[in-house]
Amino acid sequence: MPTQEQKSISTVKSYTRADWQGGYTSLKEEYDYWIDDIEGEIPPELEGTLFRNGPGLFDINGQKIHHPFDGDGMISRITFTHGKAHYSNRFVRTEGYVQEQKAGKILYRGVFGTQKNGGVFANIFDFKMKNIANTNIIYWGGKLLALWEAAEPHILDTYTLETLGKEYFHGALSEGEAFGAHPHFEPKCVMDNGNPCMVNFSIKPGLLTTITIFELDTSGKVIRKYAHQVPGFCFIHDFAITENYCIFFQNPVQFNPLPFALGIRGAGECIKFEANQPTRIIVIPRQGNSTMVDKPEILEIQSGFVFHHANAFEKNGNIIVDSICYENLPEVEPNSDFRHTNFEALKPGQLWRFSLNLADRIVNRELIESRSCEFPSLHPNKVGREYRFLYMSAAHEETGNAPLQAFVKVDLETGKRILWSAAPKGFTSEPIFVPRANTSGEDDGWVLGLIYDAQYHRSDIVILDAKDLTVVTKLHLKHHVPYGLHGNFVDEVFI
Ligand code: CO
Predict the structure, then answer these.
(1) What separation in Å is there between the alpha carbon of 73 and the centre of ligand 1?
(2) Residue 209's domain is classified under what CATH number?
(3) What is the pLDDT of the chain when averaged over all its residues?
């Protein structure tokens, strides 16, 4: 029998850190070309455009940024039409991006710890924020919008990806006002005669936190906007919707702004996870035509940290919420380098199902997927509804924590899992489920993913059959695309 030590030495990892790091190198060039290096055939029925957003720069002229979340937003657009595919990418020309590129150095402190050169005295009492537009990209009401949760969206040209300005929704948003990066698209809204609607939120943190909800019709007009104050500091990145509710998980964190004000730490580095405090679930009734809004309900559960919710729905008087939970939030340390992340020392994200009973004020929870997972995606018609199939990015190994190298499909009805892995050289990001047109099967369609291939330091677009996660097509790009955050597929063809 091997001793414990020998056993751990002989454990073969599914990746090397050097390979993983390759996906966190800047992509400075902007491309525009038809993809010609293709394995397999692009399904001719796959017509539309995949937009993705994420940090594109990890340095400003060689000065390293401290955390990927501080990286300037870069849009990738992959257009599928008539069995062909086109790639282009552009940086969002935010004020900060333009100024820093011109200056050739870091001019702004980042929320996640990027500091200007010159130490404390260069950073003290500098609260200027760079709206980096790097988290999500949506197409709604005829506009392409790059989102970052702490400020207003940037409008881009769908054809040229040129930055056109900032979006204020006809004055519904004021200058500098936050607009979250995680809108959810309700397929049929009962308040809007069964038309689709977009629901988003914003957070104004403080001792009391204001949560504002925005509901937009298909023309991009804000038709409902309502706000609530809840006790305590909130660090909330995503939420979930049902037909009648918006659901928020208030992670148990404490915010001490002093080191930020003193120029020692970034704001995100002043957030401390409190393992002995419960997570609060805030349930806000969605507003109908009345101007009176019911008060939010707040329920408590065991402590945990959530970035992303997979979905939520109402069933038998309960609200069901599926969320990816971490046992704790690793703190971003000023002297650490994210490129040297020790995955094994961190807790994995795992999929849990929460059943909320508002009448009895009871929350039950159940672990659904223990494999390390992130970035959930589902059929767009199932948002806010009972659903069966969920797709996520996942680790190659069933246990432990590791970089995302696979996609997993979970059948929530039977419990069956299907895994597609790009290990050892491939690293995955958010999968996007695209339904086949004119079909009704919940998993009839494709899963699109952008994979970083460390062997060639380039990225591939994979098209998987959503039924069994077999590869239909692999499109090799001419370059790498850094690990991104979120994106969306639209049926319109933009080239
Ligand atoms: Co997110």
Answers:
(1) 14
(2) 2.130.10.10
(3) 92
| Residue 6 in domain | no
pLDDT of 126 above 80:
no
Residue 1 alpha carbon to ligand 1 centre in Å: 44
pLDDT classification of 215: cutoffs 50, 70, 90: very high
CA separation, residue 14 to residues 20, 401, 404, 427, 459 (Å): 11, 11, 10, 10, 18
Task: Output the CA 68–ligand 1 centroid distance in Å.
Answer: 13
- 4 in any annotated domain: no
- pLDDT, one tens digit per residue, over 453-476 is 999 999 999 999 999 999 999 999
Candidates 180, 114, 128, 172; CA nearest to 151 is: 180
Distance 277 CA to ligand 1 centre (A): 23
Cα(72) to centroid(ligand 1), Å: 16
182 lies in some domain: yes
**377, 449 in Cβ contact below 8 A?**
no
Predicted confidence at residue 2, as pLDDT, reads: 41
CB 126 within 8 A of CB 112: no
Q: Which domain holds residue 177?
A: 15-490
Number of structural domains, the chain? 1
**CB of 412 closer than 8 Å to CB of 387:** yes
Task: Quote the ligand 1 centre to 236 CA distance (angstroms).
Answer: 10
Q: How does pLDDT run across 12-68, given as a tens digit for each residue? A: 899 999 999 999 999 999 999 999 999 999 999 999 999 999 999 999 999 999 889
Q: Please say whether the beta carbons of 461 and 46 come within 8 A.
A: no
> When comparing pLDDT for 334 and 398, which is higher?
398
CA of 117 to the centre of ligand 1 (A): 29
In the reported structure, the alpha carbon of residue 237 is separated from the centroid of ligand 1 by a whole-number distance in angstroms of 6
In a domain, 387, yes or no: yes
307-320, pLDDT tens digit by residue? 999 999 999 999 99
Q: Which phi-psi region, left, alpha or beta, contains residue 264 (left: φ > 0; alpha: ψ -120 to 50)?
A: alpha
What's the rounded mean pLDDT across residues 159-176?
A: 96
Q: What pLDDT score does 266 carry? A: 78
